[in-house]
Each structure stands twice: as structure tokens, then as C-alpha cells.
Design goal:
single chain, 629 residues, alpha+beta, 5-stranded antiparallel β-sheet, 4-stranded antiparallel β-sheet
């Protein structure tokens, strides 16, 4: 989901006044309507466009870059399986959004404003600041339009997902059994059979070393290495070379007024007499008859609409509020409901409106007309947008020249550096097949070790190493792949073979000792001091030993188990006693039940998601290995 919201959101705890902020509410629809754009997937007829995929891709790249730092490799996102995973996640989100919309799960403008006002990243001097809001979003490559649309989608979907994830189930008996199993302890002592004790019994001759070297020659190969000079060129870097004057900002503002408008909002209340779309006709007729009776009462006493909604409406989300649905824009409700609301005048009450949820009686409460934000409020965002457009245009204009210059003047990188006003830099030693942080992605290394660079001593072709980022390289030094001679690795092989054979002897001795112990014999061995283990124990000897310890029958103690140690050698464990969990108190049971409810809630949601996917009409683009879209 939308992680930026999860990470930054802090809802206002006490609202002293109703805060309606002058956000750029340009509407979810205006963000999503891209009928002429390329679509990568469709979900029940709704398209997911390239722009949405690119946004999701950039966000995931940003999270990975922040998490991995210098180790981040953008080439990971060129892999078809990674791109498919991102698109599949967008499909799931869109499907949930469709389901939330069909269920009438929406939020009002006031609720959206309250959520955004509570995000500390947008605060200055402890309060929401519009300029800070725009600046932070710009740093995330987002506009207010995109952000607000996504927050609205996120909160709508959250209402749907919470219905499952927050309603998991757990019983006292299950919780008590889990506590008993999870908190049971076992008293254990261990004994190590270390391989070091067997080293003196092992001999390795030259023939064994030579045989290992010949059989495992690839282990001793050193890959190709190269050191290069290079020039990188990106649209982002070009922004510093771009200026935008006030006249251009004003002209864009005047020519793109719809971008700066807030769509008309309507506040309505309704009374729902529920009946499923798949219900038998008799049920539908009965529901319609009840709705007509309520409608008659509403028309007799229009001022009592809220009271009648509390009495008769079967919409659990709004009935207690007199049917009030808050403010919403065109297209945010199911189609029949939406069409009816936007035909009413304030105070007017509709006839029966049928949707997939049943029969609605709608009263229009308030109309909030559309408005246009002033230039001062959007100037910074427009300036940034124009700079980005000019930088992208400049990049597109220079990209071909960059590529042609690198090819045509292939004996030097100086002309391409001068063309794009970027420095010629030098790399450290690069190893073939070992990609790293930008700019040394897989594609960059392919260019470094290409024949034209290594053998022909020419500039590489221009390579796109990230969106709107090109690289050209030229060889400085080169080391071919080679196999290290036996004399150089002889000692390392000798030590490795010694260790392997000592490990084998330790393992054989350990297994033999375990058989003796399990037969009731008492071999001479040293046991460490007893320890108390739990099922969640993490030991130096490895998790497998813990698993075996808790498989021991507590009725037959002491009992012995053993495994090959993750640290080398063999480890034996003697289970001496079992300590049952203490009596369960209410607080501990409550903690376990909460965890169980969370687990079962997550399972419920995953089952729901799988089911709606099964019944949805979904098509997705298949990504090829060389496909960047």
C-alpha cells in the first residue's frame, strides 16, 4: 500500500476547530483519467496506466535506495519478475479500490484534510504549512493532486481491509494451548565434539591437493577487471541548468486552469433498505415495498429525514449519523447513487434509487461549488513542474547527440562531457559481473566489458543506467580473467581439506556417541552447565537442535539428541527436565489472543483478496527481460 502515508501519518488527537485547509483538491478522477495513455493492466474494465506503474516503481526504488545506500542497484528493477510483482500489487490495490467504492466506503474532504494536517512532515513551527506540504511532496516526485488522490484511495481501501484484518478470531482455549506450548521450558545440557580435536589424525598429500585444484578450477579463477573514465548525464542534473521566469509560470497557470480547480463537492444523507443484487425477485420486491413505505413517511415529514434514517436505514456506516455521508465528489459513489445526487437541489429528496446494495432515499444537504486556487498558492509547484519539463525536453534533445558524439568521436570522452556540461570521472577497479551502486549497474558493466571498449579501445555506446540517465565509458586499464596457479593456492586447499576431513571424523564420532547414549551407555564426555530453553530459543548450535529438543517425549527423561553443528563439528544435547508454563493470567492471555486475532485477520483478508481476484476480470502485461516498460 501507500507506505509514505503509513510512515509519516499522525492523526490529530484533539480537534478544537473543524480545519478545512486550502489543499489543491483537484480530484481523484483527474489523476486517473488517462484514456489515451498506454495501459499495462485492466481490472474489471479499469485501466492501470504506465504513469501509475512508473510512480509505483519510483517509490519502490526510493525505499530500496534508502534501505541499501551504496549497495542499491537500480538494475534489480529491470528484472521481469520484479516489475511483474509491482504491477501485480497495483492490480490488487485497484481491485480493493473498486470493491471499496462499490461498498460505498468513502471519506469526506474534511476527513482528508484532517489526515493530511496530522502528517508531521508537512508541519512548520508545529502547524501545517502549505509551502512545506508542496516542498515535501516535490522531494517524493509527487504533486498535491497525486498525493491527495492516493491518500483518499488508501483511506477508502483501509476501511475495507480493516473489516477483515481487525476482525480476526481467537478463543481462550486456543490461546491457553498456545501459551502452554510456547512458554514450556526444557532443562538442557550440551556437549560439543569439535573438529579441532581430529586435525592431528588427518594427513593430506600433494596428490589430493592437486586433484581438488583440477576438479574445482573455477573456484580459483579471478574475473575480468577494468578501470574506466566515464561521463553520466541525466534529466535531474539538467534541472540546475534550467531557469523559469514568472511570465512562463503565469502563462502556464492561465492556460491550464482546470489543473488548479477543486471539483464540486456535495454532502448528502440517505436511507438504505438493503437487498443483495443477487437476491431472488421476491426479496427485491419486498425490500422495494418497505422502501416505498419509508419514502412516504419522508415526504410527509421531510424535516424528520435524519430521525427516519436512524430508525430505518440499514447502512451501518451512516444510519447513526442520520444517514449523513459527508462531502464527496462526482464519481465517488456507485453510479445510480452518483447520478441521482448530482441531479438534486439542496434540500431536495429523491425518489427510490436502486443500486447493487438495495434501495436508497437520498437528501441533498449541501453543495460546495468548484473553485480555482490562486496563482500564489500553486506558483512553487508550477515552477518545479516547468523546470522538470524543460529538463526532460533538454535531456531528450541532448540524448541522441550524446550517443552520437560518444560513437563518432570514439577516442575521447571530452566532447560528450562538454556537450552536456558534465565532468569526466574515473572509476575504481570494476569486476565483471559484480554490479554495485549507481552508476555501476549490470547494464553499465556490460558496456564496460564490451568488445568495443576492451579490445577496440573505443568509447562505449551510451547506456541508460536509470530512467533518464545515460552513461558512456572509456577504458583506462584492463586485467583479463585468469586462474590462480596451484602454488599460490596450495596452502589454502591444504587447510580446507584438513578441515573437511576433521569435520567428517567429528560427525562420525558424534553419531556413534549419540547411539551409545540412547542405548543407555555412559561414554566418557564433558557436559556443559544446564540451561533452560524455550521453543523460541536461538542457540549457537543452530535451530535444528532446539527443534529436536522439543520433540523429545517428556515421559522418558533424560533423553539425548544430536545434530551436526552450524559452527562445525557435532553437538549433543541431554534433556533433563521439563518446566510447564505458569498459570495463565488475563493480561498474558489477552496478548496472545491479540496476536491470534491479527494472524487470523490477516488470513481472512488474504482469503478475501484471493476470492475477489478469482471472480474479477484481470489482464496484465507480460514483461520481457529487456523491457523497461
Amino acid at each position: 500500500m501507500f507506505d509514505f502515508v503509513h510512515e509519516k501519518k499522525r492523526l490529530v488527537q484533539i480537534v478544537l476547530l473543524l480545519i478545512i485547509l486550502p489543499f489543491a483538491f483537484w480530484g481523484v478522477d483527474s489523476y486517473r483519467k488517462s484514456d489515451g495513455a498506454e495501459s499495462l493492466a485492466t481490472v474489471n474494465g479499469e485501466k492501470i496506466h504506465q504513469q501509475e506503474f512508473d510512480d509505483a516503481l519510483r517509490q519502490q526504488q526510493g525505499r530500496m535506495r534508502e534501505a541499501l545506500g551504496d549497495k542499491f542497484d537500480p538494475a534489480l528493477f529491470d528484472k521481469p519478475e520484479v516489475r511483474h510483482s509491482i504491477l501485480e500489487n497495483l492490480v490488487s490495490q485497484r481491485l480493493l479500490m473498486i470493491q471499496a467504492r462499490a461498498a460505498g466506503l468513502t471519506i469526506s474532504e474534511a476527513q482528508l484534510a484532517q489526515v493530511i494536517a496530522g502528517i508531521e512532515a508537512f508541519h512548520k513551527d508545529g502547524k501545517f504549512d502549505k509551502q512545506q506540504y508542496v516542498t515535501v511532496l516535490r522531494s517524493q516526485n509527487m504533486s498535491p493532486l497525486m498525493f491527495e488522490a492516493r491518500v483518499m484511495q488508501e483511506l477508502g481501501m483501509r476501511q475495507l481491509t480493516d473489516a477483515y484484518t481487525q476482525n480476526g478470531y481467537a478463543s481462550n482455549s486456543v490461546a491457553d494451548n498456545l501459551i502452554r506450548l510456547n512458554e514450556q521450558q526444557r532443562v538442557v545440557s550440551v556437549s560439543q565434539i569439535a573438529p579441532d580435536a581430529f586435525l592431528k589424525h588427518v594427513t593430506i598429500d600433494d596428490a589430493a591437493i592437486k586433484a581438488y585444484y583440477e576438479k574445482n578450477s573455477t573456484e580459483f579463477q579471478t574475473p575480468e577487471q577494468a578501470r574506466v573514465e566515464y561521463v553520466t548525464f541525466s534529466a535531474e542534473a539538467l534541472q540546475s541548468q534550467v531557469t523559469v521566469d514568472d511570465a512562463a509560470v503565469k502563462k502556464y497557470y492561465e492556460e491550464h486552469q482546470p489543473e488548479f480547480g477543486e471539483q464540486e463537492q456535495r454532502q448528502a444523507a440517505h436511507i438504505l433498505i438493503a437487498v443483495a443484487a443477487q437476491a431472488p425477485d421476491a426479496e427485491k420486491q419486498a425490500a422495494k415495498a418497505r422502501a416505498e413505505q419509508v419514502l412516504q413517511q419522508v415526504r410527509q415529514s421531510p424535516a424528520k429525514f435524519a430521525e427516519l434514517a436512524k430508525q430505518y436505514s440499514q447502512d451501518p456506516g451512516s444510519a447513526a449519523k442520520g444517514g449523513d455521508l459527508g462531502l464527496f465528489g462526482h464519481g465517488m459513489m456507485v453510479k445510480p447513487f452518483d447520478e441521482a445526487v448530482f441531479q438534486l437541489k439542496p434540500g431536495e429528496i429523491s425518489g427510490l434509487v436502486q443500486s447493487d446494495f438495495g434501495f436508497h432515499i437520498i437528501k441533498l444537504l449541501v453543495v460546495k461549488p468548484a473553485k480555482t486556487l490562486p496563482l500564489d498558492e500553486v506558483k512553487s509547484a508550477v515552477t518545479q513542474k516547468l523546470k522538470l519539463q524543460q529538463a526532460n525536453d533538454r535531456f531528450a534533445e541532448l540524448a541522441e547527440k550524446f550517443s552520437n558524439t560518444a560513437y563518432e568521436q570514439s577516442d575521447t570522452l571530452k566532447p560528450v562531457a562538454e556537450l552536456v556540461k558534465m565532468p569526466v570521472q574515473q572509476s575504481a577497479w570494476l569486476i565483471k559481473g559484480q554490479a554495485g551502486a549507481l552508476p555501476w549497474t549490470d547494464k553499465a558493466l556490460q558496456a564496460v566489458f564490451a568488445k568495443e571498449v576492451v579490445k577496440d579501445k573505443r568509447n562505449s555506446s551510451a547506456v541508460e543506467i536509470a530512467p533518464n540517465t545515460l552513461l558512456a565509458v572509456r577504458l583506462l586499464e584492463y586485467k583479463p580473467a585468469s586462474t590462480r596457479p596451484l602454488a599460490e593456492v596450495n596452502d589454502a586447499i591444504h587447510q580446507k581439506l584438513l578441515r573437511q576431513q576433521a569435520l567428517d571424523l567429528a560427525s562420525k564420532q558424534g553419531k556413534a556417541t549419540l547411539e551409545q547414549l540412547q542405548r543407555g551407555e555412559k561414554p566418557n564426555m564433558e557436559w556443559k552447565a544446564v540451561q533452560t530453553w524455550t521453543r523460541a530459543q536461538r542457540t549457537a548450535e543452530g535451530n535444528e537442535l532446539v527443534r529436536l529438543v522439543f520433540q523429545v517425549n517428556p515421559a522418558k527423561l533424560p533423553a539425548y539428541v544430536g545434530v551436526e553443528s552450524e559452527q562445525g563439528g557435532y553437538v549433543l544435547a541431554r534433556v533433563e527436565a521439563v518446566k510447564e508454563a505458569t498459570a495463565t493470567d488475563d493480561a498474558r492471555r489477552a496478548r496472545y489472543m491479540q496476536q491470534l486475532r491479527q494472524l487470523t485477520g490477516d488470513e481472512l483478508f488474504q482469503a478475501y483478496l484471493a476470492d475477489i481476484k478469482k471472480h474479477a476480470t484481470i489482464s496484465m502485461k507480460a514483461f520481457a527481460a529487456d523491457d523497461k516498460k
